[in-house]
Every structure is written in C-alpha cells, then in structure tokens.
Amino acid sequence: MAALFGPNYRRLIWKCLDSQDLLPEKGNLPPAFVSLDKHAGSDAHYLFDYDIERPDGNHRVLCSVLPPHAASSRHQHPFPEDYYILAGKAYVEGELITQDTYRTQPWQYHQVSTGDEPALMVIVMRTAGAYPKEKQHIYEGSPNGRVIFP
Description:
Layout: H1 2-5, H2 9-19, E1 45-54, E2 57-66, E3 75-76, E4 81-88, E5 91-92, E6 95-96, E7 101-104, E8 112-113, E9 119-125, E10 137-139, E11 147-149
Antiparallel strand pairs: 1-2, 2-9, 3-10, 4-7, 4-9, 5-6, 5-8, 10-11
C-alpha cells in the first residue's frame, strides 16, 4: 500500500475514521487484511470490513483499494453509502468525485471507477446493520437484473 499511496496511508485512514467517529473500540484500526475474494464484477480489494454501532445506527465500514483503470460492480443498496476518497482519484458513473466525500442515495445504482491513478477509499454503508449481510449489496448481472451478495 505504501508504494501506491505513500508511507502515511494508514494515517489517512485513521484520520478519516476518527473524524467520522467510526473508529472501533479503543481507537485502533481493525486488523488489516487484503481480500482476495472480490464481489462479482468488481476489481476492488478490501483492507478491512467491520460493523460498528453508533447512536445514528449500525454502520458497515470498509476500506477499499481500486487499482488504476478498474471498476467496482454496478450496484445499489437499500441505504445511503458514503465514499471518502483518501488518495488518488475516483469516478462515480464516469464523473470525477471532486469533493472528499460522495454519498449515494438508497436504491441508487452506482459504479466507482479509476483512471490512471489507483484510489484509496473508506466506504461507510450507513445503517447497513438494519439489513442482513446478504441483502446489503445488490448488483446488476443476473438474468432478473438483481443478485444479492454480502
């Protein structure tokens, strides 16, 4: 990761989570992992994925790396989702995210992609805990246009 985003990439993640009150108990980052399992149709890799309970709901928090010239699946959720772009550039439906945060609305189909640069993102699935994991992520690609996966 340091080769892609510089030696302070962990600090970028920590600052983002801290500023949104999304750090797990004891103020530590969750144990990092690199997911080799990808969602169908997605090039994203995940450094962590955890659930956190807050007064405004139970949220799912992920840290994603999207390589250059790559894209997530085109998908939707039954809740809002926030993308915090920490490094690099990312596009939603082909439009550059020009602010630090981009929010999708419930049931809004969206696809995140990159150009020449990779992107490091924290993704917050707001109130995702109200839904079973298998109903949190709905993507296009099945014969009926909707496949659900965790």
